[in-house]
Write a structure and sequence with these properties.
The protein has 333 residues and is of the alpha/beta class. The protein is 31% helix and 22% strand. It contains eleven helices and twelve strands. An eight-stranded mixed β-sheet has the order 6-7-8-3-9-10-12-11, with helices on both faces. A four-stranded antiparallel β-sheet has the order 2-1-4-5. The structure holds adenosine-5'-triphosphate, iron/sulfur cluster and magnesium ion. Iron/sulfur cluster binds next to loops.
C-alpha cells in the first residue's frame, strides 16, 4: 500500500563534489563543490521546478537524484528506502521507477540504432516481455508521445528536434516510472515546439500519474509547469516554496533578482516590479565564498553575511529561505 504522505523522493544534506587534477598528474587536485548540502522533499504527483544560473549544479543534482552519479555526502531516499549507497544491482528495481529526460535528445540516442529499438531497449533490459509484447508496448508508447507507428523504423537524425525529444520521453516512460527528472527538456527546441512538448509532458503527467522534477533556464516555463519551485545558487537551495507564491513574493535577494528579469506578461501596474541587475560574476565552485555564498553579489549584504552561512529555514508551511535578512510578509516571520 502506498502511503500518500510518504515523500516519493527525499535528499538529506546531499552533496556532490568532483575532484579534478591537472592533465598530467593528480598533484594540485582541486575540488568542485557542485552540489552542496541539498535537502529537498518531493511529493507524489507534484512538479518541482529547479532554477538557477548556468553552473549552479542543477544537472549534477539531477544526476545524483537518479543515481547516475555517486553521492559524495548526505542521503537519498526513494519512498523511504535509502538508495544512497546501493550498488548497480541493488538499484535495478529503483531504476525503472526513476527516469531522466535530457536536454539534448541527440546526445542520449545512439545515432546508429532505429528509434523503435531505442525505445524497446529498457523493456528488453528490465522486463520479461516477449518480442511481440515489446513491439506492442513500443507502438503504444509512440502513440502516447504523438509519434506515428512507422516512425519506429527511422534513425534519430531523420527526426526534428521536437520529435527526437518525443522519442527521449517515450524511452523514459517505457517502464512506467513514478518519477521523471527532466533536465532542460525543452531548452534546445524552438519556442513553438517547446509549447507542444510542455503540453505533452502535462498530458502524460495526468495520464500516468507522474511526479516531475523540471529543470529549465526559462523561468516562465518553470512557473507554468511547477507546483513548487526550488532556487539554486552555487550548489545550494536558497529558496523553496509554492510556485505562484514564490514568483509573486520572492524572499531571497537572489530569487528576487532572477524573477525581476522575467518579462511581465500579466497586467501588473507599471513600475511595481523593478529589474534587479546583479553585479559580479558567479563565483567559482572550486572556491566558494565564505559565509553566505551569495554575499559578493548581494545588494543588501551585511558584515554577518560574510562570515555566517544562513541555513535554509522554514518560515511557514512550505516556504523556506536561506538568508539572514529575507523579505517576508508580516505573517511569515
Ligand atoms: N563531471 C564533472 N567534473 C567536474 N566538474 C563538473 C562535472 N560536472 C559538472 N561539473 C561542475 O559542477 C558545476 C555544476 O555543473 P552543472 O552542470 O550541474 O550545472 P547546471 O546548473 O546544470 O548548469 P547549466 O544550466 O549550464 O546546465 C559546474 O561548475 C561544472 O563545471
Ligand atoms: S544572507 Fe546576506 S548576503 Fe546572503 S542573501 Fe541574505 S542578505 Fe544577501
Ligand atoms: Mg545543466
Amino acid at each position: 500500500m502506498i502511503d500518500k504522505d510518504q515523500p516519493i523522493l527525499e535528499t538529506r544534506e546531499l552533496s556532490k563534489r568532483f575532484s579534478i587534477g591537472t592533465r598530467f598528474s593528480s598533484q594540485g587536485k582541486r575540488t568542485v563543490h557542485a552540489v552542496d548540502n541539498v535537502s529537498l522533499t518531493v511529493r507524489r504527483g507534484e512538479t518541482v521546478g529547479l532554477v538557477g544560473e548556468s553552473g549552479c549544479g542543477k544537472s549534477t543534482l539531477a544526476r545524483c537524484l537518479v543515481r547516475l552519479y555517486d553521492i559524495t555526502d548526505g542521503r537519498l531516499l526513494f519512498e523511504g528506502d535509502d538508495i544512497t549507497g546501493k550498488s548497480l544491482t541493488e538499484l535495478r528495481p529503483f531504476r525503472r521507477r526513476l527516469q531522466m529526460v535530457f536536454q539534448d535528445p541527440s546526445a542520449s540516442l545512439n545515432p546508429r540504432r532505429r528509434v523503435g529499438d531505442l525505445v524497446a531497449e529498457p523493456l528488453r533490459i528490465h522486463t520479461d516481455l516477449s518480442s511481440r509484447e515489446i513491439s506492442k508496448r513500443v507502438a503504444e508508447l509512440f502513440d502516447l508521445v504523438g509519434l506515428l507507428p512507422d516512425h519506429v523504423m527511422r534513425y534519430p537524425h531523420e527526426f526534428s528536434g521536437g520529435q527526437r525529444q518525443r522519442v527521449g520521453i517515450a524511452r523514459a516512460i517505457a517502464l512506467n516510472p513514478d518519477l521523471v527528472v527532466l533536465d532542460e527538456p525543452v531548452s534546445a527546441l524552438d519556442v513553438s515546439v517547446q509549447a507542444q512538448i510542455v503540453n505533452l509532458l502535462a498530458d502524460l503527467q495526468e495520464k500516468l500519474k507522474l511526479t516531475y522534477i523540471f529543470i529549465a533556464h526559462d523561468l516562465s516555463i518553470v512557473r507554468q509547469v511547477s507546483t513548487r519551485i526550488a532556487v539554486m545558487y552555487l550548489g545550494s537551495i536558497v529558496e523553496e516554496g509554492p510556485a505562484e507564491e514564490l514568483f509573486a513574493t520572492p524572499a531571497h535577494p537572489y530569487s528576487q533578482a532572477l524573477i525581476s528579469a522575467v518579462p511581465v506578461v500579466e497586467t501588473t501596474p507599471a513600475g511595481t516590479r523593478k529589474r534587479i541587475i546583479l553585479t559580479g560574476d558567479v563565483p567559482s565552485p572550486l572556491k566558494p565564498p565564505s559565509g553566505c555564498r551569495f554575499h559578493p553579489r548581494c545588494p543588501i549584504a551585511a558584515d554577518r553575511c560574510r562570515t555566517e552561512r544562513p541555513q535554509l529555514t522554514e518560515h511557514r508551511s512550505g516556504r523556506k529561505v536561506a538568508c539572514h535578512f529575507p523579505t517576508l510578509a508580516a505573517s511569515d516571520g
